[in-house]
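note to self: dont lose this again. the chain is below, predicted strucutre after it. 545 aa total, dont forget to put it in the shared folder this time
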Amino acid sequence: MKFISLFISTVLLIPVVGFAQANLPNEKAVQVKILNGILEGTRESSTINSFKGIPFAKSPIGDLRWKEPQDPENWTGIRKADKFGANAMQKKIYGDMIFRSNGMSEDCLYLNVWTPSVNPKKALPVLVYFYGGGFIAGDGSESRYDGESMAKKGIVVLTINYRLGVFGFLAHPELTKESAHHASGNYGLLDQNAALRWVQQNITAFGGDPKRVTIAGESAGSISVFAQMASPLSKKLIAGAIGESGAMINPTFAAVSLEQAEKNGVAFAEKASATSLAALRAIPAGELLDAASVPDAFKTVAAIDGYFLPKEPAAIFAAGEQALVPLLAGWNSTEIPYQAFMGDKAATAGNYADKIKQLYPDHADEVLKLYPGNNQKEVIRSATALASDRFIVYSTWKWIDLQSKTSGKPVYRYLFSKVKPEMTAEFTNAVAGLAGGITKNANAPLHKAPTLAGAPHAFEIEYAMGNLTTNRVYDWKPEDHKISSLMLNYFANFIKTSDPNGPGLPKWAPLSIGEFPYMNIDVRTKQEKEQDRKRYLFLDQQYQK
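---
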């Protein structure tokens, strides 16, 4: 995973500081009254109103650090809701994350709403979107998650913040002991649950229908969707789910036992020279973040705590005890590059076979049949597929497979395959300038390893949410905007009707007994039949051992 994080932060997600769009000037103020008081938001366009920085829980600071979120306090008068709240405590890990937030703070439990109407009688469908970032980074203010384009489809859209890293996932025996539920950890997931409860209480004021709430997210956000579906605390609060690359299933993002999570927490406390819970809570937020960011100091992982997660999440799905709602989910064609599997070894048939034998000593021949590598081209293709499957594809596939077998509801699967367009000249020149500043010879060619063309991790977000224009790194072509319109409409239709199909869109069939179709979203979007099931079934057998 270290290689994956390094690769994403330095290659796929090149820093784009200076390319964030500024907010448009307010055209007109708009007010709503919610449970806690009156909010004044902004008329962003002739049809969309926005309300930013709404507190959905008390500030999780002081004695509330590492406690489940508490109900927000009331206010008197009119509270301005025209600026994003602070983003959660985190390091700058991913270069593509550009926040519009009001700085960084432990006081971070805010949400944002975009709505076509503030008429309580409208009863519009609702989308709650969870950001990605490996549970250690991200924020609801990112432009790629902006809800205005989706709101123009007649949907009330929310992005929400949740605690990250050590602030959101520390388990500890003392925390378990003080908990009324005898549980600890999972505070970031409980924050998401608190936001969903807030929606049930307040979304009518924004024109939304609390009975028509779809949750969605990408990467850690998708894993969050899976977790909320599994949790008895949230499963009755949602009517549909969208997952983009990720589920809380082996091998990468599985939850651990409460006992193991507590051991992780005790080990971190020792490294932080904190001999008690009181001492941990006394550490200033910045210092705590620094301590947890030291390599191997703290592992961010969810816990099977007996409260939010009563048992292993995949077992909940297998038993049909999850949210029995329609699901639309999928992944990207090249989630991570082959180097994540091969490391620093060249992509030769011999090196590839050696790596397979190292990782699968008892099944090497079978793996080489499923992921053949007889020449460089084949090695790059298969190593990319195996790296992606091990990273996040298999877990997403397993989620889809379980939901289709036990929910009794329609399940739609996609593959996003659109290759990245060229970068804009403006951005290319900026990158060249940075490279020239750190190399002795700015004219020296940079080494470029061969790669497999496709859609990398997180690349579909702007397409799905209709936000290509907020990303000025790429020279978007008409075909990109066409694909974005198609994907946005698929998602909007699903949120509205539990069915992505609609006029002018290629027909998308749900999974059924013995049939595993998926929509390949690309320049020529079309439905295809599953070809790689044997790969996933093999991995399934490996991870069940």
